[in-house]
Specification:
heterodimer, A: 111 residues, mainly beta, six-stranded mixed β-sheet, five-stranded antiparallel β-sheet, globular, B: 113 residues, seven-stranded mixed β-sheet, four-stranded antiparallel β-sheet, 11 strands, 50% strand
């Protein structure tokens, strides 16, 4: 079983504050690392797909970094807004097509 | 419109009955996946398929079976051997190339009484 660990499991942040959370994954036989946002009553939607060590991706106020050698990725949200409230999932692909998810970080933005 | 369709959205079954959950995609994706979510937990991989007529067990395959006879379809059967079948089930697909993300259906909530 591939272990993909996310921390923290939940997070409460004041509107306007910046925050970040972590995804750790096996560093051997790396293929790709995904980040998804999952809002209540919706399906998960992809934020980033990262494939190279040192990758940095950005979409608006959200960015992510990747370190495949040590097996971790960070997701950053700058200036949190209420609409950022969601569960953020990371998923790891090792080797072929097996896509394994972490337990997620549930983010709540307090107005 | 391209997408992934799961049906039904809600499903009730009596204990001891097999039940099949449908997942259809018209995105021409090679890889398809089935996940299960329980309250307070993340997505756990049940089965996945890379190509037609081929599939692999995920981390919690016991009590489940799948088939991949067509590229667009990946049905999941929850058998009577699955001890705790009540859960939320999500189907996903992706093209299969390294830099591609997964797309998800709306999910099926199965309740076994």
């Amino acid at each position: 079983i591939l272990n993909v660990e996310q921390s923290p499991q939940s997070l409460h942040v004041q509107e306007g504050d910046s925050t970040n959370f972590t995804c750790s994954f096996p560093s051997s036989n790396f293929y790709a690392l995904h980040w998804y946002r999952w809002e209540t009553a919706k399906s998960p939607e992809a934020l980033f797909v990262m494939t190279l060590n040192g990758d940095e991706k950005k979409k608006g106020r959200i960015s992510a970094t990747l370190n495949t050698k040590e097996g971790y990725s960070y997701l950053y949200i700058k200036g949190s807004q209420p609409e950022d409230s969601a569960t953020y999932l990371c998923a790891f692909i090792q080797g072929a097509q097996k896509l394994v998810f972490g337990q997620g970080t549930r983010l709540t933005i307090n107005p | 419109d391209g997408g992934i369709t799961q049906s039904p959205k809600y499903l009730f079954r009596k204990e001891g009955q097999n039940v099949t959950l449908s997942c259809e995609q018209n995105l021409n994706h090679d890889a398809m996946y089935w996940y299960r979510q329980d309250p307070g937990q993340g997505l756990r991989l049940i089965y996945y398929s890379q190509i037609v007529n081929d599939f692999q067990k995920g981390d919690i395959a016991e009590g489940y079976s799948v088939s991949r006879e067509k590229k667009e379809s990946f049905p999941l059967t929850v058998t009577s051997a699955q001890k705790n079948p009540t859960a939320f089930y999500l189907c996903a697909s992706r093209p299969g190339r390294r830099n591609t993300e997964a797309f998800f259906g709306q999910g099926t909530r199965l309740t076994v009484v």
